[in-house]
Amino acid sequence: MATTASAAPVESDLDRSVAEDEPRGNEPEEDGGNGQAGPTTGAQQQHRLAKLPLSRIKTLMKADPDVSLASQESVFIIAKATELFVEMIAKDALVYAQQGKRKTLQRKDLDNAIEAIDEFAFLEGTLD
């Protein structure tokens, strides 16, 4: 009596397929992009993870008279929170642009998103 191989993939096959599905570019670089070999520092790694310029974020934070010092971690967290906020409001505004059969966001799309979503109520009247 001959046995047939099971249709279920072996665990190592699953590991490979998951690794192949992950987006490239999330792995930390060995040289940190500066041509020198060695592990990256925390500040370099945070800078690569943030899309906004951290130096500008720090400058804006220090513009507040209540802020005298801003740690690198706090600057990174503010930058990341800002990125997530902009992404969220842009996605919500995109829905209104698509309803108007447009691909470009307009001010009215942002206004509609701000009016429709309770989380953005604090922004009402800021674009006037």
List keywords for this structure.
128 residues; 5 helices; mainly alpha
Short summary of the structure?
The chain is mostly helical and 128 residues long. The chain is 52% helix and 0% strand. Helix 2 (42-49) packs parallel to helix 4, helix 3 packs across helix 4 (72-99) and helix 4 crosses helix 5 (107-116).
Architecture overview:
It is found in: Nucleus. Component of the DNA polymerase epsilon complex consisting of four subunits: the catalytic subunit POLE and the accessory subunits POLE2, POLE3 and POLE4. Interaction with POLE3 is a prerequisite for further binding with POLE and POLE2. Accessory component of the DNA polymerase epsilon complex. Participates in DNA repair and in chromosomal DNA replication. It holds the Pfam family CBFD_NFYB_HMF. The chain contains 5 helices and no strands. With 128 residues, the chain is an all-alpha fold. α4 packs across α5. The longest helix is centred in the last third of the chain and has 28 residues.
What structural class results from the helix and strand content?
mainly alpha
Mean pLDDT across every amino acid position: 76
Q: Percent range for helical residues?
A: 40-55%
Largest sheet: none
Distance between the termini: 80 Å
- Number of helices, where a helix is a run of at least 4 consecutive DSSP H or I residues: 5
Net shape: elongated
